[in-house]
Write a sequence for this structure.
């Protein structure tokens, strides 16, 4: 595992799970962007707690089991969806009174600790199998590093047209090639090496934002202010909970710095490989994509996210390996980022309404990221499964992919690659035990 189990990590994981469950229970913040708008009707008395819990369970449980757990096991770091979505469910399970708050907090803390031990236990179990396939699982996320720089070009194509997307893609490839050829130089006897994938991603993100701003048109008059005036009380409600949200942001950042959690599949893979600068750039790109969604749903519902726009992860990644000062800096920076986000909530929301191109960018970015991650994890899962069981692995993963599309309740398409690779490893061990999968040497 990338993380270590000790007193500090136990405390942080307990605090992580506890505060996320508490925020969900007290209707302050939830991680699932899909369930957040449901809290508005609940707070206004239009739906009851059972309906809220049923909705939270329906929207989150499948992602926890089908996406969060297999992705975390394959990447050796807990992806935040695993714990935060589960804590959304735990928070909604109990009544939002004093006893419910205490119970939800305790349940969330216990889940955080059990998740960490459970992850380690699963890894130890895999290591005891006759055929150890853990090393092959790192291949699952390998292509994410290479392909993630493509998503801005796709977002640009959605935003404008295919030609603009092709131009951004071509320039991205050119930047990557130039960085690979000329990215090694010396400054004052210090060797500087630019990561080609990181530079390509940085350029493509800048190009994406530039295009979005160019196609935006300012709204006339005070239409934006009028549009959001009705939600002013929701913004005030979020601001009243600024302190606990700041603590939440600090805890999330601290857990990221301790390598306990990662904000997404791409940054998880990069972080696990020690490529922290590149992981921070990827996290920044995802943050840009989530700002419109988080801000808009927060204004509509009066409920925020325990991790905000996910910006807290960016500096937290850069604080890894900086010792005690890095841990302290991570917590303080994460808390400050959450405070700034909350204070700017109304301003950002109005700005997004004045510049519809930026609001569209959020939707387009998430769609593009999803497509790239789907393909990267699927092909990566195929490669990992094939390394475990040549030719059979390809058949297994691609079969699961298409069969999942026909299922009445399909799991997240991003999860098929990790699930396929892990299950292939288990299958070959079973076949080996019964003599149907001999291993040479």
């Amino acid at each position: 595992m990338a993380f270590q189990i000790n007193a500090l990590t136990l405390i942080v994981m307990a605090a992580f799970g506890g505060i996320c469950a508490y925020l969900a229970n007290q209707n302050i913040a939830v991680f699932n962007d899909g369930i957040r708008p449901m809290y508005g009707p609940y707070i206004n008395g239009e739906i009851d707690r059972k309906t809220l819990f049923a909705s939270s369970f329906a929207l989150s449980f499948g992602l926890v089991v089908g996406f969060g757990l297999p992705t975390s096991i394959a990447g050796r770091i807990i992806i935040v969806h695993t714990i935060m979505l589960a804590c959304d469910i735990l928070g909604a399970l109990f009544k939002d009174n004093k006893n419910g708050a205490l119970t939800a907090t305790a349940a969330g803390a216990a889940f955080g600790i059990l998740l960490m031990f459970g992850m380690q236990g699963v890894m130890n179990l895999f290591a005891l199998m006759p055929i150890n396939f853990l090393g092959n699982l790192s291949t699952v996320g390998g292509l994410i590093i290479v392909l993630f720089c493509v998503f801005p070009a796709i977002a640009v194509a959605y935003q404008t047209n295919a030609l603009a997307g092709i131009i951004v893609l071509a320039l991205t490839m050119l930047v990557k090639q130039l960085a690979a050829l000329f990215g090694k130089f010396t400054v004052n006897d210090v060797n500087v090496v630019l990561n080609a994938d990181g530079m390509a991603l940085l350029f493509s993100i800048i190009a994406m934002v530039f295009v979005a701003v160019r196609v935006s048109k300012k709204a006339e008059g005070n239409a934006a202010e009028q549009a959001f005036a009705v939600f002013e009380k929701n913004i005030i409600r979020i601001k009243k909970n600024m302190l606990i949200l700041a603590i939440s942001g600090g805890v999330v950042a601290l857990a990221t710095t301790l390598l306990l959690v990662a904000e997404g599949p791409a940054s998880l893979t990069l972080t696990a490989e020690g490529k922290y600068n590149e992981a921070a750039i990827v996290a920044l790109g995802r943050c840009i994509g989530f700002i419109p969604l988080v801000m808009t749903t927060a204004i509509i519902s009066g409920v925020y996210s325990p991790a905000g726009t996910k910006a807290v992860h960016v500096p937290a990644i850069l604080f890894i390996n900086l010792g005690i000062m890095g841990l302290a800096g991570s917590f303080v920076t994460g808390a400050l980022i959450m405070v700034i986000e909350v204070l700017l909530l109304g301003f950002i929301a109005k700005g997004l309404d004045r510049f519809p191109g930026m609001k569209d960018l959020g939707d387009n970015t998430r769609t593009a990221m999803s497509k790239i991650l789907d393909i990267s994890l699927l092909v990566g899962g195929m490669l990992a499964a094939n390394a475990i069981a040549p030719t059979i692995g390809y058949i297994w993963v691609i079969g699961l992919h298409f069969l999942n599309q026909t299922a009445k309740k399909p799991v997240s398409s991003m999860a098929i690659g990790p699930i396929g690779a892990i299950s292939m490893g288990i299958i070959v061990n079973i076949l080996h035990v019964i003599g149907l999968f001999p291993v040479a040497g």
Q: What stands out?
A: The CA atoms of residues 155 and 396 lie 31 Å apart.
